[in-house]
Fold this protein.
Amino acid sequence: METIHNAINYAILQLSPASFFAASAVVACLGIFPTSSFAVAAGALYGFALGLALYVASATLGAALCYFAIQTSLRDFIFRVFIQKYKEYYEKITRAVKSEGALYITVLIRLSPVMPYTPASFILALVDVPIFDFLLGTAIGLVPSSAPYVYMGSIGSSASSGDEWDVQSIAMTLSGAAGTLLLTYKVSKVVNRALNDDTDSSKKA
């Protein structure tokens, strides 16, 4: 399994910018393997700023392709095949979107590791989140959630190229990692509270 993972990462690093963008969009749409591999590779290939922009744009495009496929021809098929595994999330997110707003819930779900990227796209499309809220919420949530992966790729590339790390760089890296873990923890709690509070209120009603 590790050999396959390494082979995939190596293949990603050989892609041209256009091919990288297209491949990242396809993976984000289909969920073939974790999208974080492309986030790390984006940082390694293009640096932090450009890599982050490229990854966020391509992953958002992939989510949009997923959305339009479900809204047009694949809705019934995806619902039958997919929703059984994520039925609880589907029901909670449906209620949360109605009570908290589509954009707010979309941003929170993209920020939090509460569920994988592609299944989240499926559910948000199935609960009929408006396309504007879906795309804007996805892009907003992807920036902070993918930034640590892109940054990790960029510093890994710098280290392999022989650039020296000073105390300031190490401190910034460690503080960034700690901040990311704290943000992930807090956002996860907000998401779970939003979903569970809505479930409790619907039961009382």
Notes: The chain has a mean pLDDT of 79.
